[in-house]
Specification:
single chain, 128 residues, mainly beta, five-stranded mixed β-sheet, four-stranded mixed β-sheet, 1 helix, globular
Length: 128
């Protein structure tokens, strides 16, 4: 029983920490990112800890496909944990936005899980 309670507390803490990264605060920085089958541009992004960043992601091509009846199509933008932020189904020509508070210093991979293994869609965020 004690183990179950400790596990529940750990899970709750992880949820609270991860949810703190997505924000409605005004952005300090705007980062425009283009994604295509050739990758992300820019593929390296330098930020400061504590900044609120508005990521604007534009798909330059159809990514894994333009069949919008499927669950997954186009491109996505995923910052791996501890940020664990995902913007899904970005159509060719479309721009999607997400605001993130950069609370963890370090190097973090962002990628398109849809395209991984098919196209070189990977980049790095460096938070100082």
């Amino acid at each position: 029983m004690k183990t179950l309670i400790l596990l529940s507390v750990k899970i709750l803490l992880v949820i609270l920490i991860v949810s703190c990264t997505r924000t409605d605060e005004s952005p300090d920085v705007i980062v425009d990112i283009k994604v295509s089958k050739d990758g992300y541009s820019p593929s390296e992004i330098y930020l400061e800890k504590g900044q609120v960043v508005l990521f604007r992601i534009k798909a330059l091509d159809e990514g894994i496909g333009a069949d919008y009846s499927k669950k997954y199509y186009g491109h996505c933008f995923y910052i791996l944990p501890p940020y664990d932020i995902m913007v899904e189904n970005i159509k060719e020509g479309e721009i999607k936005e997400i605001k993130v508070k950069m609370i963890y210093p370090g190097k973090f991979i962002f990628t398109c899980p849809y395209c991984s293994g098919l196209f070189p869609t990977k980049g790095e965020i460096i938070v100082k």
